[in-house]
């Protein structure tokens, strides 16, 4: 099984979308200051996780999310997933700024 995931950094106020067969282990790598986009912060949290039967399905979903290029659309996806399945996210979406909030102030 492979999962598409979305990470969120409150330090950078950024999302990162990826695919992994082991999201928890991949999160550790993202937070260990490896090369790439996620090395900008070490507070990444998994805020959205969706399992797929195949890697190709997960990659297609990741591509769809990245094509949105919309923080608001990503926030809505996370909120809808956490409202339908409160255990679907490690943070429950609590650390995700609302689409209409001050980007420097997080809802707790």
Descriptive overview:
- By secondary structure, the protein is an alpha+beta fold.
- The chain has one domain (2-88): GIY-YIG endonuclease (3-Layer(aba) Sandwich).
- Helix content is 33%, strand content 21%.
- It contains three helices and three strands; from the N terminus they run E-E-H-E-H-H.
- It has helices at 23-30, 55-68, 71-84; strands at residues 2-9, 14-20, 45-52.
- It has a three-stranded antiparallel β-sheet, with helices on both faces.
- A hairpin with a 4-residue loop joins strand 1 and strand 2 (14-20).
- The protein starts with a strand and ends in a 24-residue tail after the last helix.
- The model is unreliable at 88-108 (pLDDT under 50).
Q: Quick recap of the structure?
A:
This protein is an alpha+beta fold and 108 residues long. Helices cover 33% and strands 21% of the residues.
What attributes does this structure have?
108 residues, alpha+beta, GIY-YIG endonuclease, 3-stranded antiparallel beta sheet, 3 strands, 21% strand, globular, disordered C terminus
Tell me, what's the shape? globular
Count every beta strand, where a strand is a DSSP E run of 2 or more residues.
Answer: 3
Question: Uncertain regions: pLDDT < 50 for 5+ in a row?
Answer: 88-108
CATH architecture: 3-Layer(aba) Sandwich
Percent of residues in β-strands: 15-25%
CATH homology superfamily name:
GIY-YIG endonuclease
**CATH class assignment:** Alpha Beta
Helix/strand-derived class? Answer: alpha+beta
End-to-end CA span:
32 Å
Q: Please state the average pLDDT score.
A: 82
CATH topology: GIY-YIG endonuclease
Fraction in helix? 25-40%
């Amino acid at each position: 099984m492979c999962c598409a995931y979305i990470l969120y950094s409150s330090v950078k106020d950024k999302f990162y979308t990826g695919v992994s067969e082991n999201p928890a282990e991949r999160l550790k790598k993202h937070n260990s200051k490896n090369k790439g986009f996620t090395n900008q912060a070490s507070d990444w949290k998994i805020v959205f996780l969706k399992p797929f039967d195949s890697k190709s399905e997960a990659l297609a979903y990741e591509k769809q999310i990245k094509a949105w290029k919309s923080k608001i659309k990503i926030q809505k996806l996370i909120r809808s997933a956490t409202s339908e399945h409160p255990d679907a996210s490690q943070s429950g979406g609590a650390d995700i700024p609302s689409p209409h909030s001050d980007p420097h102030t997080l809802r707790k």
